[in-house]
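REVIEWER CHECKLIST
Item 1: Sequence provided? yes
Item 2: Single chain? yes
Item 3: Sequence as submitted:
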Amino acid sequence: MVIEGRMPSLNDYVRAVNANRFKGNAMKQECTSLAAWAAKAARMPRFARPVTVRFTWVEGNRRRDIDNVAFAKKFVLDGLVQAGVIGNDTPQYVTGFEDRFAYDGRHPRIIVEVTDEA
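Item 4: Structure as written out by the authors:
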């Protein structure tokens, strides 16, 4: 699936939580819903077996630290659960991640690939 645009970094999320815990929760809910919608729009299958998730974070520029960018995987995984693609985001259901980074000033996005371990 592809999530258009970019999600908040860890620094953005911490700032929101420190400003007001409700603001931080609203940010999380919005990003989780965005990921769930993208999974449904892509008609992702439901996985019964454990999965590995590959994230390709396509940023518009090199200004954000990659560890802060990859923090958004929390929102994406919660969205996959919300969409019913995976049963949960615990180790029983998700056995690993892979993060890759690319840059495209005109089309930032997050590409998410889910594979089971069959």
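Item 5: Key structural point noted by reviewer: The CA atoms of residues 26 and 85 lie 23 Å apart.
Item 6: Recommendation: ____
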